[in-house]
Design a protein that fits this description.
Strand order of the largest sheet: 2-1-15-14-13-12-11-10
Number of helices: 18
Structural class: alpha+beta
Radius of gyration: 26 Å
Largest sheet: 8 strands, antiparallel
Helix content: 40-55%
Strand content: 5-15%
C-alpha cells in the first residue's frame, strides 16, 4: 500500500502540470477568439482539437450577408487548395495497390500529354514546371460562357505547346493544374469518376458525411456559405463574390475543375479527417510519412512561415516545437487553413467566407499559443470603419471616428495605401459633386497622416486637378516631386497643368 501511495504522489505533479498547461492554452485561445469576435476579424468558423478532444469550436459572422444568415458549426465552407491533400491521398492509395509508381512519367497513362519527362511525383510536389490557370485565358475570351473541366486541360496544353518554366524536378513552383491532372490519373487508374472515388475511399471511411464536391454542375446546398468580397474599397458591405465581374473567370469559367479545389466541408468533418489519418484508415503510416517529407528544391515562404512541400502537404521548416504539416486554400471570397501538429496530436481548421485579411495571422497565433509564446496583435483596418462612417454619416463623423480609433493602435492599423485607394475610388466613382468632395477630404487627410509620402501629395494633386483647382493641384504635385523627383507620373501631370 505504501509503495502505491508513493507512485501516485510521484505521478500527480506530472498529471497536474500537463492539465494546468492545457487549461492555460484553452484560456488563451478563448481570449484570442473573444477579441476576434469583438473586432469582427473573422467571418467563418473554427475548430481546434487536442488528442481527439475539441478544446474550442465556434462560428462567426454571416453565411449570407444579404440575407443576414449566420454561419453555424454545420455550415459548409470552401476548402480551396486544402482539397489537394485529398487528391494526394487518392494517388498514394492507388500507388500502394500497385496501380502506378510515383516516378512513372504521367505520359505513360496519357500519351497525348505533351511533356513526356514530367512524373507523377513532380505533379504531386509542384516541381513539374507546368503553366497554371493562364492557359485558359484565351479560351475564356473566345468562349466566355463555357465552364471548363479537367478534360480540357491536355488538349489546351497540346495546342499551346508552352515550354516548361524549368526542367522538371529542378525547382518548385505552385501550380493548380498539377492536381487537376492527378485527378484525371485517379479516374484512369480506378475506373471511377474522381468525385465518386474520393467519396467512397476517403470521405466515407473518415466519417465525413458533410463533405462534398460543388462545381458548376450542381445547385448550391442550403447550408453552404456564400463567398463574399469587396469589389471596391468604398463599399461598406461585402457582396457575393459570384457577382464580381473581375473574378468571374474563377467563380464561373473554372468552376468545373476538380483535384485542385471545389470541395466543401465543415469544421467537424475536418476534425474527423484528422483522426482518420492518425487511425491509418486512409493510408498506411509509411505512405503518409512519405507525403509529409520534403525535397531540397521544394522550399517556399508560406502563409505560416518558411515551409517545404511534400506530396500535397506543406511542412513548416521550423520544427523546434513539433512537426507542423498543413495546407491553406483561397478562392475569390473565401480562405481556409487546415493545420496539424503531428508531434502533439493537435489540429485546427479555420474557415472564412468574406476574405478576411486576418485568417493566416490567426492561424499563426494558435501555433504560438500551443508553443506557450506571446501572440501577435491582430488588428482591424481603421480605413474600413472610416469609410463606413463616411458613407453613413458624412465627412465630419468619419473624421471623429478616425480620431477616436487612431489612438487604439493595439487593435487598429491605418494604411496609407488603403486611404489612397479609397480616395481615388471616390474620385472616379461617378464624378458626382458629393463623391468628389469626399475624395478631396480623404486624400487631403492622407497627406496629413502620411506627410513624408510623395504619393499622398500626388494623389491629392490629381483630385484637385479633377475638381478644377489648378493652382492647388500644381502646388501638391511640386510638393510630391520635392520628396520624389524621379516620379515620372508626377512630372507628366505637373507639365500638363503648367501648359
Amino acid at each position: 500500500m505504501q509503495k502505491f501511495i508513493i507512485l501516485v504522489l510521484c505521478y500527480l505533479p506530472v498529471t497536474f502540470d500537463a492539465f494546468s498547461q492545457q487549461e492555460r492554452i484553452s484560456t488563451r485561445i478563448d481570449s484570442l477568439f473573444d477579441m476576434i469576435a469583438a473586432y469582427k476579424l473573422l467571418n467563418g468558423a473554427v475548430q481546434i482539437t487536442t488528442n481527439n478532444h475539441t478544446i474550442y469550436k465556434s462560428a462567426f459572422g454571416y453565411a449570407d450577408f444579404a440575407a443576414r444568415k449566420p454561419n453555424t458549426d454545420t455550415t459548409t465552407f470552401a476548402l480551396g487548395s486544402v482539397s489537394k491533400i485529398f487528391t494526394s491521398i487518392a494517388v498514394l492509395q492507388l500507388r500502394d495497390r500497385g496501380r502506378c509508381g510515383l516516378d512513372d512519367p504521367f505520359a505513360r497513362y496519357f500519351p497525348d500529354f505533351p511533356y513526356e519527362r514530367i512524373t507523377i511525383r513532380q505533379l504531386l510536389s509542384h516541381t513539374s514546371g507546368l503553366p497554371d490557370y493562364g492557359i485558359f485565358e484565351a479560351a475564356i475570351a473566345r468562349q466566355p460562357e463555357k465552364v471548363f473541366t479537367n478534360a480540357d486541360i491536355i488538349p489546351l496544353l497540346q495546342k499551346l505547346q508552352l515550354p516548361p518554366a524549368f526542367q522538371p524536378g529542378e525547382k518548385w513552383q505552385y501550380c493548380n493544374l498539377n492536381f487537376c491532372l492527378l485527378a484525371l490519373l485517379v479516374e484512369k487508374l480506378s475506373g471511377m469518376p474522381f468525385e465518386k472515388y474520393l467519396t467512397a475511399k476517403i470521405f466515407k471511411p473518415a466519417g465525413m458525411a458533410d463533405t462534398y464536391f460543388h462545381t458548376g454542375k450542381q445547385v448550391k446546398p442550403a447550408r453552404q456559405a456564400l463567398h463574399h468580397d469587396y469589389p471596391l474599397f468604398i463599399q461598406t458591405q461585402p457582396v457575393n463574390a459570384d457577382s464580381i465581374k473581375k473574378t468571374r473567370w474563377r467563380t464561373f469559367n473554372l468552376n468545373g475543375l476538380v483535384g485542385q479545389g471545389n470541395i466543401f466541408s465543415t469544421t467537424a468533418d475536418m476534425a474527423r479527417f484528422d483522426q482518420a489519418l492518425y487511425g491509418n484508415r486512409l493510408l498506411k503510416p509509411a505512405s503518409l510519412d512519405e507525403a509529409m517529407r520534403t525535397g531540397r528544391p521544394n522550399v517556399t515562404e508560406s502563409a505560416l512561415g518558411p515551409a517545404g512541400y511534400g506530396l500535397g502537404w506543406f511542412v513548416l521548416q521550423d520544427s523546434t516545437h513539433g512537426r507542423i504539416v498543413f495546407h491553406t486554400g483561397g478562392v475569390p471570397g473565401a480562405i481556409c487553413a487546415f493545420v496539424r501538429d503531428i508531434s502533439r496530436r493537435q489540429s485546427f481548421v479555420l474557415f472564412d467566407n468574406a476574405f478576411s485579411p486576418n485568417v493566416f495571422a490567426i492561424a499563426r497565433n494558435i501555433l504560438k499559443i500551443w508553443d506557450h509564446e506571446p501572440a501577435d496583435p491582430l488588428k482591424k483596418s481603421l480605413t474600413r470603419d472610416y469609410v463606413t462612417a463616411l458613407s453613413q454619416k458624412g465627412v465630419d463623423a468619419a473624421f471623429v471616428k478616425l480620431t477616436q480609433l487612431r489612438s487604439d493602435s493595439l487593435h487598429y492599423f491605418l494604411s496609407e495605401h488603403e486611404m489612397n485607394e479609397l480616395g481615388l475610388q471616390l474620385l472616379y466613382a461617378g464624378k458626382t459633386a458629393s463623391h468628389t468632395a469626399e475624395a478631396l477630404e480623404v486624400l487631403k487627410l492622407n497627406t496629413l497622416l502620411f506627410p513624408l509620402s510623395f504619393n499622398t501629395y500626388d494623389s491629392y494633386g490629381e483630385a484637385l486637378a479633377v475638381a478644377g483647382k489648378k493652382e492647388e493641384a500644381i502646388w501638391m504635385y511640386k510638393k510630391s516631386l520635392e520628396i520624389n523627383p524621379q516620379s515620372k507620373g508626377g512630372q507628366e501631370a505637373l507639365a500638363q497643368l503648367l501648359k
